[in-house]
Amino acid sequence: MKKSDVKKLGKLVKTAWWMLLLRGIAFLILGLLFLWRPLETTSLLIWIWGLYLLVDGVFSTVFAIKHHAKLKKWGLLLLQGLLGIIVGLVALFKPVFFTAIAELTILLLIGVALIVLGVLQILATIEFRSWSMFIGAVVLILLGILYFAQPVFSAMIFIYLVGGLMVIGGLACLWYAFQLERIARRIK
Fold it and tell me: Is the pTM of this model over 0.70?
């Protein structure tokens, strides 16, 4: 490897390690917030997303109206903008309502996916004649049914799962960041 390549790699590693460190800290804080205050954290994220949708909707609407003569499908852009404004306002002023709808939708999709995966795995069990696959398929189907039967309980499990995964991801980012920092010191 050329000396110039080593310098470029060193600069990349020096930049990457602190960016990974910041990402790890952010994931860790957000994950701990999800575990400590799950409903408030979810509402805050919905509020931030709603603010984004509102601002984007306003800009899209203004752009569509201002440039409607130049755009063939300005009506679609206008519709997108107006929907963004409406959804953004609902998310900003009714974050708990919006959170419930968003989580319910996600949970229903997960429930359907678990049931479909379970059924497909049962069909695969016929081919492989595996009791462990069959038991796993039944567990998937039962979890899918649980998501439908107990949506509030499933929502809380989902939030805690997201929080736990964010904590694990944050810790992994921190570990890798310090590994990269150690490498960056050696490259000098």
Answer: no
